[in-house]
Design goal:
The chain has about 725 residues and is an alpha+beta fold. It has four domains: about 130 residues, PAS domain (Beta-Lactamase, 2-Layer Sandwich); about 160 residues, 2-Layer Sandwich (Alpha-Beta Plaits); about 250 residues, EAL domain (TIM Barrel, Alpha-Beta Barrel), CATH 3.20.20.450; about 100 residues, predicted glycosyltransferase like domains (Thrombin, subunit H, Beta Barrel), CATH 2.40.10. The chain contains 23 helices and 30 strands. The strands form six sheets. An eight-stranded mixed barrel has the order 14-15-17-18-19-20-21-22. Strands 2-1-6-5-4-3 form a six-stranded antiparallel beta sheet. A six-stranded antiparallel beta barrel has the order 23-24-25-28-27-26. A hairpin with a 3-residue loop joins strand 15 and strand 16. Helix 11 packs parallel to helix 12. The longest helix has 19 residues. The termini are far apart.
């Protein structure tokens, strides 16, 4: 075949410009200095191909590289080198593999590129991340090359920028694993993490706690301020949770206003209770959302593996039961799971049904606790307390049925009945004693409240100044105009207003500046610890009193039970006292008997000093001594000890292991003993269970209990035995 002769411009003597010798033409011959003699020249097709490759490089759509047999770069596109913060010349001779980071921090893929280069294997579209500047990704391909003798001479390859695709994929992955609003792990993510953690920990016999928490009154924020405000509030909640927990990967938003926290290797219920309290206190502090001041709360349920469940389904279900119990016992508190919560949940559902007809059946009644002037011991008023006597179960605690009434939308009818009944009773009292009636936030939010109050006063004939409405700080949820209007309407009736439970987490001086209160009630949590050494509660009470006096308000200290507490309260100039040191609540008939002259004075009586709370009970527990288990009856329980009966003539100093069930064991020493009764002191104090009861700080693993009981020959009860002790 006839071939056309090469023209002079096709010879190697005439170089094609290559941008400074950095492109493919510079690499493969075109653009080199002219040689004295040319043996061969690239064809037109070859030159065009090289020019096309150079244009391809310059377009940024892809790049090329080559190495020698040792994996050292012999060529790399300059634009890519610049993206790495280098120049092509600077990278020549560098290890190609060291230009990239491992794809992940563990596993085989960390060795993929070095492994392939060493094995002289071809590879295609391998995703690699830049080891230098920027978060840039490339899909890199390479082919090994060999000389005529079959010896490996190096690699030639190409790459394309996949940074945007990678980011899009990561964004999609993030959306699948993380909550788009708060940035926390989502339900799917945290569920996988919990499954993995529990499976690993079961093999290693390690514990893991979870917390489920639910925001209280969040719906009111959405309803009053709108969903954008609710979203902004949830972001702030997430930030506060992360500040307490610390590990972002262990905190999740399950949806709505529900959150879950995983706490690996934590089973100390003292620490868990402290963290739950910190979370509740933190989330209960005011928020600023779109110029509005919002106040919500939180309730927390806690379950611990392996004690409360050995897989994620059981553990989450039991934490949810604990959360249900916390909300049912008044909200703004935490609860640990215990096996009796299953029955408690059923009982609560049954009580809700019974509560719907309790008023109509006449099962509700009022009792009254005296409010006494601290300096004179004279009763100046009474607080109305609603009581429910169930026809089958007997007295039901208000701490149990009031939250049920709120959730079941029964609180308005119940609250109206209490108000009318209290006004009727107080109208018949001799003298001018006031009656205090609690108003729930749900009642306060109802615009018909002033009409109901006016009607109750008119029907009973009670002077308005003798009715005192006790209102908690939670009514200031959004500092709305409706709140101010309600205060104005109530004060327009001439009734007195008291700020109840002051200092429990929502306090703001702004309330006292804007709301027309006549009295501040100091929460009993400040009173109980005020006489303990090192307590700051006394200083807090003094500050509250000084503030109230400056605003010409009265003060009432709640929950005074001991004489040393009363002495302190008097020294701090608290004007009124309410508590067992004067009297428990009494019926209306008893009240009339005491106050028939119109003047009722009560002499204080009670223990000289504050004692740890004691729970009266009748509970069978185990007492293990010398490899023998006795069944005893616990009559009362405090954080530091208990009173038991059932073993005769036990010497002082005898040690027992008290078995409360469900892995709750505590060492105790006999400090008092008479016949079949013993007073015992615990080696380690009990801790709060969040619901007014007590529990052990630690629990013994079911594996250890089984092994120890078998070795000692003691017939310990099953680990899941119901244990409804500690004042529940």
């Amino acid at each position: 075949m006839h071939r056309p002769a090469l023209r002079p411009e096709d010879q190697g003597e005439r170089a094609v410009p290559d941008g400074g010798g950095r492109g493919f033409l510079g690499k493969f011959g075109a653009g080199r200095a002219a040689a004295p003699r040319v043996e061969a020249a690239p064809s037109i097709q070859t030159k065009e191909a090289l020019l096309l490759l150079q244009n391809y490089e310059e377009s940024g759509q892809g790049w090329f590289w080559s190495t020698d047999a040792n994996g050292r770069l012999t060529y790399i596109t300059d634009t890519v080198a610049q993206q790495m913060g280098r120049t092509a010349a600077a990278l020549i001779g560098a290890s190609f593999a060291e230009l990239f980071l491992p794809v992940d921090s563990h596993g085989e893929r960390q060795r993929t590129l070095p492994f392939l280069l060493t094995k002289q294997s071809k590879f295609d579209e391998l995703p690699l991340r830049c080891a230098f500047e920027g978060d840039r990704w490339w899909a890199v391909s390479g082919r090994p090359h060999f000389d005529g003798g079959g010896r490996f001479t190096g690699y030639r390859g190409s790459g394309t920028d996949i940074t945007e695709q990678r980011r899009s994929a990561e964004d999609a992955s993030r959306l699948a694993m993380y909550d788009s609003l708060t940035g926390l792990a989502n339900r799917f993510n945290i569920s996988k993490k919990l499954d993995t953690t529990l499976a690993a920990f079961a093999q290693q016999q390690r514990s893991c706690a979870i917390m489920l928490l639910d925001l209280d009154r969040f719906k009111q924020v959405n309803d009053t301020l709108g969903h954008p405000a609710g979203d902004a509030l949830l972001k702030q909640v997430a930030g506060r949770l992360l500040k307490i927990v610390g590990d972002k990967e262990m905190v999740s938003r399950l949806g709505g206003d529900e959150f879950q926290i995983i706490l690996p290797d934590v089973e100390d219920r003292g620490k868990l209770g402290d963290m739950a309290s910190d979370i509740i206190n933190s989330l209960s502090q005011p928020y600023s959302v779109e110029g509005s001041r919002c106040i919500i709360g939180a309730s927390v349920g806690v379950a611990i593996s392996p004690f409360d469940g050995d897989n994620s389904d059981n553990l989450v279900r039991n934490a949810d039961l604990a959360l249900y119990a916390a909300k049912g016992n008044g909200r703004g508190r935490f609860s640990f799971y215990s096996s009796d919560l299953h029955q408690a949940a059923e009982d609560r559902r049954a009580l809700e049904e019974d509560l719907r007809d309790a008023l109509a059946r006449g099962e509700m009644e009022l009792s009254y606790q005296p409010i006494v002037k601290a300096k004179t011991n004279v009763v100046t008023g009474m607080e109305a307390l609603v009581r429910w006597t169930h026809p089958e179960r007997g007295p039901i605690s208000p701490a149990l049925f009031i939250p049920i009434a709120e959730e079941a939308n029964l609180i308005w009818a119940l609250g109206e009945w209490v108000l009318r009944r209290a006004c009727d009773d107080a109208a018949s009292w001799p003298g001018a004693m006031r009656v205090a009636v609690n108003v729930s936030p749900i009642q306060f939010a109802n615009p018909d409240l002033p009409k109901v109050v006016a009607s109750a006063l008119a029907t009973s004939g009670l002077p308005p100044e003798q009715l005192e409405l006790e209102i908690t700080e939670s009514v200031f949820l959004g500092d709305s105009a409706e709140t101010s209007q309600m205060f104005k309407a109530l004060k327009g009736l001439g009734v007195r207003l008291a700020l109840d439970d002051f200092g429990t987490g929502y306090s703001s001086l702004g309330y006292l500046q804007s709301a027309p209160f006549d009295k501040i009630k100091i929460d009993q949590s400040f009173v109980r610890g005020a006489t303990e050494p090192g307590s700051r509660n006394g200083a807090i009470i003094a500050a509250i009193v000084a503030l109230a006096e400056a605003l010409e308000m009265e003060t009432t200290a709640e929950g005074i039970e001991s004489l040393d507490q009363l002495d302190l309260i008097r020294k701090l100039n608290v004007s009124h006292v309410q508590g067992y040191v004067y009297s428990k609540s009494v019926s209306n008939a008893e009240l009339l008997g005491h106050a028939e002259t119109g003047h009722w004075m009560i002499e204080p009586a009670g223990p000289a000093r504050q004692r740890n709370d004691r729970f009266q009970m009748f509970r069978k527990v185990g007492a293990v001594h010398d490899n023998y288990r006795y069944t005893v009856v616990m009559r009362n329980l405090s954080a530091t000890g208990a009173f038991i009966e059932g073993i005769m003539n036990v010497p002082l100093g005898t040690q027992f292991v008290i078995d409360f069930g469900e892995g709750q064991l505590v060492t105790a020493t006999v400090r008092r003993s008479k016949n079949h009764q013993q007073g015992i002191q615990f080696e380690q104090s009990m801790v709060s269970d969040g619901n007014g009861g007590l529990c052990t700080r630690h629990r013994v693993s079911p594996y250890l209990i089984a092994a120890a009981s078998q070795q000692a020959g003691i017939a310990l009860p099953n680990f899941t035995t119901t244990s409804d002790w500690a004042g529940k």
